[in-house]
Fold this sequence. Notes:
Elements: H1 2-21, H2 26-35, E1 43-46, H3 52-55, E2 74-79, H4 82-95, E3 100-105, E4 115-118, E5 130-133, E6 140-144, H5 154-157, H6 161-164, E7 174-180, H7 189-201, H8 211-221, E8 222-230, E9 233-241
Parallel strand pairs: 1-2, 1-6, 2-3, 6-7
Antiparallel strand pairs: 4-5, 7-9, 8-9
Amino acid sequence: MFGLLRFIYDIYVLGISNTFIWCCSTSEYLLPFFKSRIQARKHLDIGVGTGYYLAHSDLGFSSSTTAEGTDVADITLCDLSPDSLRTAAGNLRAAVPGIRVRMVLHDIEKPLPKSTPSSQESAEKNNAEEKHEVQEKFDSISLMYLLHCMPGPPSRKAAIFTHLKYNLNPDNGVLFGATVLNRGVSHNFFGRYLIDVYNRKGIFGNRDDDAEGFLVALRENFEDVRAEIRGRVLMFEARGPVGV
């Protein structure tokens, strides 16, 4: 199951689709975008996929190499799929031995709980799940290819910004992500076909998604919002949560 998920997502979505259909290369644009913004001292990744971006972001560091004296990256994974959480956590631990990983099974349309069961992978099948306090503030929050998978118009999806801003460090935190748009961009034949099929099957929910719908909500909740469109993908970042 995990190998199949990794093949489908990493090869098809991040490789073929991003390059030839959405015209926003993972290696050329999305991965550098992610790596330049993640702050691994305390990071929240929402909509984790296979953990590809995290596993390829050079998160292994020690206290001797960081000015802040942090000795291990602290990563929280949040998703609605237990399989995605386990796959992402496994890939991340394989890439960065000793990394601290927490898994949160949660619907991000609702505010994050202050505490939640954390499923730590273990070789011992009968180990009981331990409860860990979910960090209330994160130095960075990523939403890579999350929004176009959520149902409803941009106004409904963007409502998550109204509570995620309370989970972002107000001093130097950054919330960032990328999403495939349908409106305001010119899709090729394969893009139009996949948008239609994915929306009918409920894989995507982006028929009404345009850049401005998300940017308006971001500007209402953050002081500093920056964005660009690469191919058919909106890449955005926001800092300075308002009213926090």
